[in-house]
Write a structure and sequence with these properties.
Distance between the termini of chain A: 35 Å
Strand order of the largest sheet of chain B: 1-2
Radius of gyration of chain B: 29 Å
Strand content of chain B: under 5%
Number of strands of chain A: 8
Structural class of chain B: mainly alpha
Largest interface: A-C, 34 and 33 residues
Oligomer: heterotrimer
Number of strands of chain B: 2
Distance between the termini of chain B: 72 Å
Chains: A mainly alpha, B mainly alpha, C mainly alpha
Chain lengths: 419, 225, 446
């Protein structure tokens, strides 16, 4: 059906006309619109933008990409307005993965918050834990032991490599390359196995604690890490060999989804996506936390701001993470891994903000305490949500295939977007 | 990107061909199983100790600590009523005695077990009827129960949990949070006040101990005056 | 009657099917036997009088039958090949090294529910897979598998090939349109644009070759390439061969030109709404297409069924089994025993840990292998079509592997780059190839 205007409620008007057929009768609906799900919402437009978007021009059509599309990185639904293969406009529809994590955190003990925020960006859980834990430590004014700090940096950088490995694989898969995703998973699996040795879990680690970490590094972890360091990022490099010089890949990615520094800053970009536009902003250097000031590493930047730059930048970051891991292993002090804290925490009333540099950008938590054992308010700043808004700027004018490439290069995780 | 067209593709093709002959990483799952890491926490199980008794004491601490509230020690019976699944009272008693024996070397009578002795529940039921079995008004229910019995018998708390559907752990938490609710009869409470009068001496002792240990005592021990 | 009715009701569904079919089969067999006895002689006469028609019917049947195992084999090659490139093991459960997995897939496809979506045009929707499949299968008819082993020797064989091969796009368009799904529609339109664009370089790239050969009959083309491998047309038309292979990849909808079923963009393209055996037809057609394109590349540029070195076929073997007389029985009876003992002896002598019966088993297996190898060698030397089909399949599957290899390595191109590549690069290059070839022919022959 050609939806020129938003469809009114389909079942409101046939109460009187057909006496026998009730509105619950499935046949009524099937005859009405052939059972095809149109992306046009069943209510009148609420905003001007909605009215403009859901009005089709000449030769245009809507297409629903998601929530069950093979490559929307989770359950994102994008309504594309197409002119042939060309994307004229698009409207991301969020909220399919909303769990109300922030509200759940406000009803949980301070310690319980860690496991609540774990599944937000589920490919890099340690960063999810790090920022609330840091915020609570600021609320409590606790000093984290240095060994715990180093362990946090070490495990988190491992997790960053795992996350970027997955990024490489998904990106290639969205462009039709079958192989790099499996090589990436080999790399990720080794890292995840060693993290499981120290944290107990493979995906939602639940490892950082307020005032330290859950357990010290153990022999299993160290031997696995040693094994891995002997061939670290071998699979990622292999994936790079497949993609970096591949003419098909480079031609598709170069100049696609370009975003300039102004726009990126205006949209509150952070992380690799911002650094790909030439801004050397990294929370680890801009607002140093933990033991990062003592570690020696570079902030790679690129100036193009296109999909290729974002991809190459992440690969550069992997190398920097390896440097950090090396230094952590050499400089790790002995000592306790947990500050001495009571089991039930009641911080003084106050507010605290803590940001960490996740694999996707600035990952921050703002917590308010009212003196009870639960945070009074807690808000989470998630970079994926910020970056997703750029899809609407980058994609129109390109083709359907480019939608996937742009999405992949921004690397959003819907668990963090919908929270 | 090189200047020779197709060189990148050729490199990639060479790499994939070499990979055909490299060792494979697949784990043949049903035959080969990976070890679960020793720190794995995802397996819920009831453990038995070396004497063959169940380690669980039905203390509800795990239910209270579970962040996603997935642990519960109760269930709905066939008539739709909620029951708390208590451990067997004998075993509970026995276990408490055992652990006390192990810690102190002599049997300690457990006052916490006494309230399981039957009480007249009619008063609780009347209170519950008055408050419409509403778990949201738990504090009022508890206060009314205390005024009816003079204290909060554990059997009464059990009854409240049973009838309102609220967790025993939560009721106990509420009751133990408020200072004016007590679990022993008033005489015992007066005795507790007498103990509290000796509290300054204990604080002084702890402060002295902390000074002797060069400040490395429990944090907050000195502040607890 | 009620008894029969009640008994019938008690039967399960397979029981009902068997009870219906078995009497029918018996009646049919009896009828056939009677018919053959009664009319067998005249029928044979009629068949003998129309030998070309009989030959054609048999060829079509055989080619149709051949497509299924071919598709199974290529699907298995793809699953296993890509798995090995991915550092996986791949299929390893059904059959030796998982080789029967594709067969199981085929059975699964047969048993799945085959539904038509609401809003689809049922007639077009149903016939689209058939059109696609038949268009693929019909092109197989003109391919010479071996000397004397071909469906039809048309003197416009190549033209027929391109004409029928282009039909498959009609089927894809039908599928895309009739599915009542926008993803299908996009897939169908993409395939139309792609196949139409790549038809042109595909056809133009072989025109140079046709100028050289002076014929369009595939049989003659292959015969022209006999002798040493330097006679193959790849050495006279390298650019043409490259363009042909690239365009053939696009024609077969394979990576990196598999835009019609780009799963990350338009779910499954034209096949989105298909399930069951209708999807199976698309699936088979794709892999049969891979085989056909490889076969055609081999036929045109790599010498077809010719071995890479000259071999004076056929060698008349001077061994006439009839000359042994009754001794043949002795030879046939004794040879396995003697060979088994012969092959078992070294095992038994060399290691004391091998028991006598183990040695015998090993000897028996080896003797059988030896006999099979001898028979194969005899067939290879004595029968030219055995040797021809061997070389043909060997070369073809090398190209099938290259298709698989590309799928394991390359990402997908974008639709506008695909079009640019066809019109701005392949078409001028094929024209250049044609021009240079024509000029060279004129210069050399004059």
């Amino acid at each position: 059906m050609t939806a020129t205007t938003p469809r009114p409620d389909t079942h409101a008007d046939d109460q009187g006309s057909s006496g026998a057929a009730s509105t619950d009768d499935p046949r009524v609906r099937l005859d009405r619109d052939l059972g095809v799900f149109e992306p046009v919402p069943p209510y009148p437009p609420r905003t001007e933008r909605e009215a403009e978007f859901y009005t089709l021009g000449d030769g245009e059509m809507f297409i629903n990409m998601g929530p069950q599309h093979p490559s929307t990185h989770g359950v994102l639904r994008i309504v594309l307005k197409l002119d042939g293969e060309k994307v004229v406009d698009l409207d991301p529809v969020l909220g399919y993965l909303h769990r109300g994590v922030e509200k759940l955190c406000e009803n949980a003990d301070y310690h319980h918050v860690i496991s609540q925020v774990d599944p937000l960006e589920y490919v890099s859980s340690l960063f999810n834990e790090w920022s609330p834990v840091m915020a609570f430590e600021k609320l409590l004014d606790v000093e984290v032991p240095r060994r715990a700090q180093y362990i946090r940096v070490l495990t988190a950088e491992l997790n960053r490599i795992a996350s970027h490995a997955l990024f490489l694989g998904w990106m290639a898969l969205d462009l039709g390359g079958l192989t790099p995703i499996l090589w990436s998973f080999i790399e990720r699996d080794e890292i995840v196995d060693m993290l499981a040795a120290v944290t107990g879990q493979r995906m939602l680690f639940n490892y950082f604690r307020i005032g330290g970490v859950n357990g010290d590094l153990n022999h299993d972890f160290m031997s696995r890490l040693g094994d891995w360091m002997s061939h670290a990022t071998e699979q990622i490099e292999a994936g790079n060999t497949l993609l970096n010089e591949n003419e098909i890949f480079v031609r598709r990615m170069r100049g696609l989804g370009t975003i300039d520094t102004e726009t990126a800053l205006r949209m509150c970009f952070s992380g690799p996506n911002l650094r790909a536009t030439g801004v050397p902003f990294d929370v680890r250097r801009a607002h140093p936390y933990s033991v990062y000031p003592e570690l020696d590493f570079d902030i790679p930047t690129r100036s193009e701001g296109d999909c290729l730059a974002r991809y190459l930048l992440r690969m550069d970051e992997v190398r920097q993470s390896l440097r950090i891991i090396d230094q952590c292993l050499h400089e790790m002090p002995d000592g306790p891994v947990m500050a001495k804290l009571p089991r039930l925490i009641r911080p003084r009333p106050g507010r605290a903000y803590a940001a960490v540099e996740g694999p996707r950008g600035q990952y921050a938590t703002y917590a308010i305490s009212d003196g009870t054992h639960q945070p009074f308010r807690m808000r989470i700043h998630d970079p994926s949500f910020i970056h997703l808004q750029a899809v609407g700027v980058m994609t129109p004018g390109n083709l359907i295939a480019d939608t996937m490439a742009v999405m992949a290069s921004l690397d959003p995780i819907m668990g963090g977007v919908d929270k | 990107m090189t200047f020779i067209p197709g060189l990148g593709i050729a490199k990639g093709m060479a790499l994939t061909l070499r990979r055909v002959f490299e060792p494979k990483v697949t784990i043949k799952y049903p035959e080969v199983r990976l070890d679960v890491p020793p720190r794995f926490r995802g397996r819920l199980q009831l453990l038995y100790d070396e004497w063959g008794t169940l380690k669980c004491e039905t203390c509800f601490q795990c239910a209270q600590a579970c962040p996603i509230e997935c642990i519960d020690m109760g269930g709905i019976d066939t008539r739709g009523r909620y029951h708390v699944h208590w451990g067997a009272p004998e075993q509970y008693d026995e276990r408490r005695e055992e652990s006390a024996l192990r810690r102190s070397g002599r049997p300690v009578p457990d006052p916490a077990f006494r309230p399981f002795a039957p009480i007249d529940l009619a008063a609780v039921d009347a209170v519950l009827d008055e408050y419409d079995h509403d778990p949201a008004r738990m504090l009022a229910i508890l206060e009314a129960t205390q005024s009816a019995y003079g204290y909060l018998p554990v059997a009464a708390l059990k009854r409240i949990s049973h009838r309102t559907g609220a967790w025993y752990a939560m009721i106990y938490g509420t009751a133990s949070f408020y200072a004016h609710l007590r679990f022993e009869p008033a005489a015992a409470a007066e005795q507790a006040d007498a103990v509290a009068r000796h509290r300054p001496a204990e604080t002084t002792y702890l402060a002295t101990l902390g000074a002797a240990l060069d400040g490395s005592g429990r944090p907050g021990a000195a502040a607890r005056t | 009657m009620t008894v029969i009715g009640r008994g019938w009701d008690r039967l399960t569904l397979p029981g009902k099917v068997v009870f219906t079919i078995v009497p029918l089969l018996i009646a049919l067999t009896v009828g056939l036997v009677v018919a053959i006895v009664a009319f067998g002689g005249p029928l044979l006469d009629i068949l003998g009088a129309n030998l070309p028609i009989v030959r054609f019917v048999v060829a079509v049947t055989l080619v149709l039958l051949m497509t299924v195992p071919t598709a199974f084999l290529i699907i298995y090659m793809e699953m296993k090949g890509i798995a090995l490139m991915n550092l996986r093991i791949g299929p390893d459960r059904v059959g030796p090294f998982g080789s029967l997995l594709s067969v199981v897939h085929g059975l699964k496809v047969l048993m799945k529910e085959d539904f038509t979506p609401t809003g689809a045009d049922p007639v077009v929707f149903t016939w689209a897979p058939v059109v696609v499949y038949l268009a693929s299968v019909m092109t197989l008819l003109v391919i010479p598998f071996a000397p004397g082993l071909y469906g039809a020797d048309l003197n416009i064989g190549l033209l027929y090939f391109f004409a029928i091969g282009g039909l498959s796009v009609v089927g894809l368009l039908m599928a895309g349109w009739a599915s009542y799904n926008k993803y299908s529609l996009l897939g169908g339109l993409r395939s139309a644009a792609q196949v139409v664009s790549y038809e042109i370089p595909l056809t133009l790239s072989v025109v140079g070759l046709l100028l050289l050969a002076g014929t369009m009959s595939l049989n003659t083309l292959v015969e022209n390439q006999g002798g040493w491998f330097t006679n193959w047309y790849i050495f006279q038309q390298p650019l043409g061969a490259l363009i042909f292979f690239i365009a053939a990849t696009a024609e077969a909808n394979r990576t990196p030109f598999d835009l019609t079923e780009a799963d990350s963009e338009i779910v499954a393209g034209f096949a989105t709404e298909y399930s069951g055996m209708r999807f199976g037809f698309f699936f088979f057609a794709e892999y049969v297409n891979v085989f056909i394109m490889s076969a055609l590349t081999v036929t045109l540029f790599f010498g077809g069924w010719n071995a890479p070195f000259p071999w004076p076929w056929p060698i008349a073997l001077s061994l006439d089994p009839a000359s042994f007389g009754i001794g043949l029985l002795f030879i046939a009876g004794l040879a396995p025993v003697v060979l088994t003992l012969l092959f078992a002896t070294p095992f038994f002598v060399l290691s004391s840990r091998i028991r006598w019966w183990q040695a015998l088993i090993a000897g028996f297996v080896l003797a059988n292998l030896f006999i099979i190898a001898m028979l194969g060698a005899w067939a290879y030397i004595g029968l030219d079509w055995v040797a021809g089909i061997l070389w043909f399949m060997l070369k073809t599957y090398v190209f099938v592997f290259i298709f698989v290899w590309m799928r394991g390595t390359l990402p997908r191109v974008r639709i506008d780059q695909l079009m640019d590549f066809a019109w701005k690069w392949l078409l001028p290059a094929s024209l250049l190839n044609l021009f240079v070839t024509a000029a060279a022919i004129v210069v050399i022959r004059s």
